[in-house]
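User: Can you recover a sequence for this backbone? Please restate the input before giving your answer.

Assistant: Of course. Working from this structure:
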């Protein structure tokens, strides 16, 4: 796969597509915002993150310090200029984005109107509908702001050395507007959190019971078991007092519920007091019910607020940290809730394993199963301990690759192809109240999201066979994605051209989908981080390596007692070399048992040769 090289190729292709001659006919170049969809806050954030995200996550791809930028990075971004011009231009792209996506009063907006599609094509969407803030806009603003702040922090010493007061002031101004967008995004996510409650005998209740009742038990017993399993979750919901959410009636003993994020700020969401800038807290319009897709993007964004990089660099203001703590509570309780539902009952079969996942509004898609995997993976890996749950989840991911017609040949008229294009549709309940048509949000990122989940699960697994199987499937998913890369035109080497894999699709695209491309970039970053991590350790091999080194060290000590180290120079040097090999093997045995085992074998072979040579010398043979 060579993920670092793939990222460099994406950068080169992106610059070739986006850095264009100015429309005024001058020799000046300017950044073209947009792609397959028109420019909006969501799509443009994805486009800019393709440039910023890899550089902040992978140290060898950074370009903020001209003196430390690698030749490979300079070549990939050469369309933007030299080592000094590249960071200046990217700094100004950040500024351009932050100043472009504001309302008439200069308040940041988080809209994604070009990804909204009308259900009734005879009616035009209103401007207010297109401009409404969406949860994905809030979610994208967090990694965008954090990567921008990291870049600006790294570039600041270079700006100081240049001695250009104008650049110093420009950089300070950009930091301020980035923090304003970040604060608005955090408050937006706090106000779009949803808790939906329902009775066991209404439509939503019956759907949830049918989903989790894999043992065919009476509904009353399922409700009681659900309430028992959710006791700690309900207790945590009581602590949510900032923004939307809270218990919302879940404490009633007969109630069932779901939690997560709605598609926008929920209707009647309270404003958050004691915030320095309340201008982004617009009136909520969304249905107070969670959507799996928006829950996943929100959780991934919130997790970045607590990454090692952010904490180490102290990127957040005191106000942002305080509000982020409220988001962390939501992150934790949401992960626990969906892990509980996914594995409800803990028996021989989980609801998650009964593919496809069925939502409480009666929809069934393999894509929803993948989203539940995305929410539950971290809980299965970090809180339950051991590999048993992760292996079961891994089996689901492998099945999804098959069912999604990625590792299997698609059939004519196969419904699975719809997941890739035009995608799974989510109705944005509540937007029709803005005097316009009902609208939907298309989700087309099944393949790259599956690749991300495969690497996430593989990184948590310790069992070597299970990890190897996931990596093999990951390679097949990447083969699939590489065949969907646009091959010709201005957008060559970007994504997505699904017709190249699914010939029956009618659409042929000339422009890139930044929604799809950023998902591939995220997957490549995870793949690169995985490649740089320690290999999986076999416990049996580790035990064997320890036992082998005990034998090697014992024989080595015997040779020392026999006086081999005091023999001739050549023999003495060889015995010292064996001692160094054993010592090194003992140092790495816990992290790399396979390497330690190989070193131990080498030491034993060398010792056996020395012993044989000594015997030959004694007998004169």
């Amino acid at each position: 796969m060579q993920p670092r090289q793939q990222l460099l190729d994406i950068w080169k292709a992106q610059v070739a597509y986006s850095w264009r001659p100015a429309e005024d006919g001058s020799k000046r170049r300017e950044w073209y915002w947009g792609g397959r969809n028109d420019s909006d806050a969501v799509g443009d954030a994805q486009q800019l993150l393709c440039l910023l995200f890899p550089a902040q996550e992978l140290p060898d791809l950074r370009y903020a310090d001209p003196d430390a930028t690698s030749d490979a990075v300079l070549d990939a971004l050469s369309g933007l200029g030299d080592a000094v011009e590249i960071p200046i231009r990217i700094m100004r792209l950040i500024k351009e984005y932050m100043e472009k996506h504001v309302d008439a009063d200069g308040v940041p907006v988080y809209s994604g109107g070009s990804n909204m599609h009308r259900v009734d094509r005879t009616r035009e969407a209103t401007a207010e509908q297109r401009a409404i803030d969406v949860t994905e806009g809030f979610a994208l603003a967090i990694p965008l702001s954090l990567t921008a702040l990291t870049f600006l922090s790294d570039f600041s010493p270079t700006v100081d050395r240049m001695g250009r007061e104008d650049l110093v002031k420009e950089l300070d101004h950009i930091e301020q507007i980035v923090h304003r967008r970040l604060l608005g995004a955090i408050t937006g996510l706090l106000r779009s959190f949803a808790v939906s409650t329902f009775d066991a005998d209404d439509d939503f209740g019956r759907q949830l019971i049918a989903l989790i009742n894999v043992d065919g038990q009476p509904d009353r017993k399922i409700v009681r078991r659900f309430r028992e399993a959710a006791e700690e979750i309900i207790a945590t919901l009581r602590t949510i007092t900032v923004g939307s959410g809270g218990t919302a009636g879940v404490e009633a003993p007969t109630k069932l519920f779901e939690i997560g994020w709605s598609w926008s700020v929920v209707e009647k969401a309270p404003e958050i007091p004691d915030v320095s800038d309340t201008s982004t807290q617009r009136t909520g319009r969304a249905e107070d019910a969670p959507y799996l897709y928006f829950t996943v993007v929100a959780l991934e964004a919130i997790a970045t607020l607590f990454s090692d990089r952010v904490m180490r660099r102290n990127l957040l203001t005191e106000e942002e940290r305080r509000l982020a703590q409220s988001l962390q509570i939501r992150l934790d309780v949401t992960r626990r809730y969906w892990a509980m539902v996914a594995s409800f009952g803990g028996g021989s079969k989980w609801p998650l394993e009964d593919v496809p996942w069925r939502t409480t509004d009666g929809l069934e898609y393999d894509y929803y199963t993948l989203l539940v995997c995305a929410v539950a993976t971290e809980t299965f890996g970090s809180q339950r301990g051991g590999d048993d749950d992760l292996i079961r989840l891994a089996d689901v991911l492998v099945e999804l690759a098959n069912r999604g017609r990625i590792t299997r040949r698609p059939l004519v008229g196969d419904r699975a192809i719809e997941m890739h294009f035009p995608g799974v549709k989510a109705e944005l309940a509540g937007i029709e109240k803005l005097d316009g048509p009902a609208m939907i949000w298309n989700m087309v990122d099944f393949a790259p999201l599956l690749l991300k989940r495969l690497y996430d699960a593989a990184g948590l697994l310790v069992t070597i066979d299970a990890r190897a199987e996931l990596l093999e499937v990951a390679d097949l998913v990447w083969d699939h994605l590489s065949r969907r890369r646009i091959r010709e035109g201005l957008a060559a080497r970007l994504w997505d051209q699904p017709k190249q894999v699914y010939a029956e699709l009618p659409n042929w695209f000339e422009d890139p989908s930044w929604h799809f491309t950023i998902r591939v970039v995220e997957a490549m970053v995870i793949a690169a981080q995985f490649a740089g991590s320690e290999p999986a350790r076999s416990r049996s091999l580790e035990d064997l390596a320890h036992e082998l080194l005990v034998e090697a060290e014992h024989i080595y000590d015997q040779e020392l007692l026999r006086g081999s180290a005091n023999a001739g120079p050549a023999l003495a040097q060889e015995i010292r070399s064996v001692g160094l090999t054993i010592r090194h093997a003992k140092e790495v045995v816990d992290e790399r048992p396979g390497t330690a085992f190989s070193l131990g074998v080498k030491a034993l072979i060398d010792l056996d040769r020395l012993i044989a040579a000594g015997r030959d010398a004694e007998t004169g043979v």
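That completes the design. Residues 540-619 form one domain.
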